Amino acid sequence: MTQRKPAPVVTRLRPSNKLFVLDTNVLMHDPTCLFRFEEHDIYIPMATLEELDNNKKGMSEVARNARQASRYLDEMVSHAQNIEDGIPLDATGARDATGRLFLQTNAIGAELPPTLASGKADNQILAVVMHLQQLHPKRQVILVSKDINMRIKARALGLAAEDYFSDKVLEDTDLLFSGVRELPADFWDKHGREMESWQQSGFTFYRVRGPLCASFVVNEFVYQEQDKPFYAMVKEVSGKTAILQTLRDYSHARNSVWGITARNREQNFALNLLMNPEIDFVTLVGQAGTGKTLLTLAAGLAQTLDDKRYTEIIMTRVTVPVGEDIGFLPGTEEEKMTPWMGALEDNLDVLNKTDEDAGDWGRAATRDLIRSRIKIKSLNFMRGRTFINKFLIIDEAQNLTPKQMKTLITRAGPGTKVVCLGNISQIDTPYLTEGSSGLTYVVDRFKGWPHSGHVTLQRGERSRLADYAGEVL
């Protein structure tokens, strides 16, 4: 009996599958993007590989990502039988990616308008997209790039172009968890029928039942502004039952933190998180002048110098460009970071003047004591460190990528509290957006964890001039 020969395998690309052409900046932004296109196919031009090779050297985040992308490609190509037929993207174990990877194996001579220089890598990629569109008229060929100008050029040539969306936590940052919820006027009528209340450790607890309880998030703040304002924090959620805990009023002088009192509702909520030893991770988001740094430093000093809960305060921030060397200038790590820490100096001046009875000598002694307990660190030397019983402040956190944010937060050892501060509308890092910022990422991922809390600060409290300028300019 003669054995029937198997039919030759012919790679048939379904027209319904899109063909995504990747720009280099997408691979350098997120090396795992190769596995994020589900059932669709990916095409990588030779110019992209050349640019990837040119950017692989160095210790920056971009160089590390370029090297990782090259490793993924090497792993897939080394197991490929026939590169021209496409390499299955799920060959390395990524089950969600069922499409194929195509590499440019032949020279492409698509004609670009004479105004575009042929030697530029961006224009070579555009020529590849144009050639593929002509080669596969029934397929959707789409250029994926983080470069806005590249996408504009592509659309001007009649080519489809998109941003890389898979790393975005939220499409619309207006949907970002604010950590604060206003209760409807009829809340107690609908949820207070079988209410239980008790007191413990100086706080009042309420067990309420009703339809709204299911949407509550643990450590979310709820309030009602009526004749007698009600402010509370959600401590527990179970189905349509929730436990609310009243707050400490930090707007009253008797509860001042290092001489600072809360000037508005959100600042009061923020101080309740910052002063709570059960909360290990706090994120504060707000415009300039909302008091993020001042409240955090006041809480850190009170718990470090007065309560002895933490041994010292460590403050770090992104020195844009991110992750680059802070220079061969003379001086210590702290001295090199000083130019980036103007906000720290300004806030320390405010905190040092809160004790009016101390006099000039007393304030000078306090200033020296404060500076001995505050350490300024560069992000570049954070890998491999473990902070034990420290109050870690990450300023300008909106400029961190999700990966950098993970690197920093995982430095926390026992007894350490991490506070991330930032304004997601002021991002300086290239290719990061409000939706893909590391700050947006952690706010979304930590939502509902019993040992974390978040507040979006709304009102500016810097000065009437700053408030008015923010409105009219």
Key structural traits:
ATP binding; six-stranded mixed beta sheet; Rossmann fold; 18 strands; 473 residues; PhoH; alpha/beta; 3 domains
Structure overview:
With 473 residues, the chain is of the alpha/beta class. It has three domains: 19-162, 3-Layer(aba) Sandwich (Rossmann fold); 173-246, no CATH class; 256-472, Rossmann fold (3-Layer(aba) Sandwich). Helices cover 30% and strands 19% of the residues. It is built from 14 helices and 18 strands. Strands 3-4-2-1-5-6 form a six-stranded mixed β-sheet. β11 and β12 (241-246) form a beta hairpin. α8 crosses α10. The longest helix is centred in the first third of the chain and has 18 residues, at 61-78. It is globular and about 75 Å long. Residues 1-13 have low confidence and may be disordered.
